[in-house]
Automatic annotation (TrEMBL):
Domain FDX-ACB: 337-430
Principal location listed in the UniProt entry: mitochondrion
Organism: Pleurotus ostreatus (Oyster mushroom)
UniProt protein name: Phenylalanine--tRNA ligase, mitochondrial
SUPFAM superfamilies: Anticodon-binding domain of PheRS, Class II aaRS and biotin synthetases
Length: 430
């Protein structure tokens, strides 16, 4: 989150960042009513039809195809709408009622009954319910977030899952697959730092036979170790690929794990995974099954593999960016320019009844500036000892990835930011 920034009660955040009082929104050709928690912005709505992972030649499309090729016998899905109910996004996956992801400060809501998915796991129950037993699903997901070179409110995830019959026959299938994958990995240039498949701190689910759960967790790890070889274990490596497993927590899996890869001199978090919660399969009406799932961010991996330094570049329409990539090939990005930064500060007093959350401020910036801001930082915050009013100063770093910005142009944009800030949140500019 933004350093030193004011943190207000999540319940206090309002959709004022929209700067409008419209009773409806037009989204993907349909009209939806708004209400008191609507907080989706025009800038976000404009991204919904882009679907970068389906654009031939785009780095995200190539990475998606590479992973789909690794799991060639899985069902490949990529056409689900980003609009889901909060129940589908959270409740079907055992998210607790007080989970921060439900808040309007963290997620985008069309209204109280409809939101933008925050993860591809929102479709797990639906896909399992259709009878799919091994599948990959790629989609754009949406989260309110800070502004910097590695965070963007729209990104792309890939979900993978496999389930087995919870029977002797099903477990024999798991054992045979584990033997096959172990044989492959034993002959590959890889070193794996593992953790126990089950542990008191990473437990088996009460509904599961511990032996079955351990076999499935092992299958998950072996399958993903093989995927890491596909993604990072290039044939010209002299040193072995190093992969390490870490215990984790996710509401919808147990046991749960994160995977890190040592790549270009540092450990990088790649994905989260685990044994699927039985409640998820029960909701999908899939009896007597047990299995695993993983989720990974395509931008995170593509930035590593292609050496792309700023997440905004994935949205660039500049041919100097797009022409560097071809479908099926991973090439090193060559920066075509280094345009100078232009820093502008905005200082203001918050109203006594403050309702500005830092993600509201970042959404306002994105809505006014598009992708012209590289990062936003809080440079000063203090509370007046007599009036008890809070003052904030944000430093906005204007820098386009495609062209030079004149000081006059930035001043004009900054004026719009200040005007929207006053109108939407009632702040007093200092």
């Amino acid at each position: 989150m933004l350093s030193c920034s004011v943190r207000l009660s999540r319940a206090e955040s309002t959709p004022a960042v929209l700067g409008r009082q419209s009773t409806h929104l037009d989204i993907l050709g349909e009209r939806y009513a708004t209400d008191e928690i609507t907080n989706i912005t025009p800038a976000i709505i404009s991204k919904l039809s882009e679907r970068l992972h389906t654009q031939h030649g785009h780095p995200l499309s190539t990475l998606r195809a590479l992973i789909e090729g690794h799991y060639a016998d899985y069902t490949h899905l990529s056409s689900f709408s980003p609009l889901v109910t909060p129940f589908k996004n959270f409740d079907e996956l055992s998210f607790p009622k007080d989970h921060p992801g439900r808040s309007v400060t963290d997620s985008y809501y069309v209204n109280k009954d409809l939101m933008l998915r925050t993860h591809t796991s929102a479709h797990e129950v639906e896909v399992f319910g259709k009878g799919e037993t091994k599948w990959l699903l790629t989609a754009d997901v949406y989260r309110r977030d800070e502004i910097d070179g590695s965070h963007y409110p729209v990104f792309h995830q890939m979900e993978g899952a496999r389930i087995f019959d919870a029977t002797p026959t099903g477990m024999k299938e798991v054992e045979e697959d584990n033997e096959r994958l172990s044989y492959h990995l034993a002959r590959s240039n890889i070193v794996i730092e593992d953790v126990p498949h089950l542990a008191p701190t990473n437990p088996n689910q009460p509904e599961h036979n511990p032996l079955h759960s351990e076999l499935v967790a092992k299958n998950l790890k072996l399958s993903l170790n093989a995927l890491m070889l596909t993604l990072f274990g290039t044939s010209n490596r002299t040193e072995p690929l190093r992969v390490r497993w870490i215990e984790a927590y996710f509401p919808f899996t147990s046991p749960s794990f994160e995977v890190e890869v040592f790549f270009r001199g540092k450990w990088l978090e790649i994905l989260g995974s685990g044994v699927v919660r039985q409640a998820t399969l029960d909701t999908a009406k899939v009896p007597n099954k047990l299995g695993w799932a993983f989720g990974l961010g395509l931008e995170r991996i593509a930035m590593i593999l292609y050496s792309i330094p700023d997440i905004r570049l994935f949205w660039s329409k500049d041919e100097r960016f797009l022409s560097q990539f071809q479908q099926g090939a991973i090439t090193t990005f060559k920066p075509y320019s280094k345009y100078p930064s232009c820093f502008k500060d905005v200082s203001f007093w918050l109203p006594q009844e403050a309702n500005l959350h830092e993600n509201d401020f970042c959404d306002l910036i994105r809505d006014v500036t598009g992708d012209l801001v590289e990062d936003v930082k809080t440079v000063d915050r203090f509370v007046h000892p007599k009036t008890n009013r809070t003052s904030l100063c944000y430093r906005i770093n204007y820098r386009s990835m495609d062209r030079s910005l004149s000081n006059e142009e930035v001043n004009e944009i900054q004026s719009l930011v200040v005007s929207r800030l006053k109108d939407a949140f009632g702040v007093e500019i200092r």
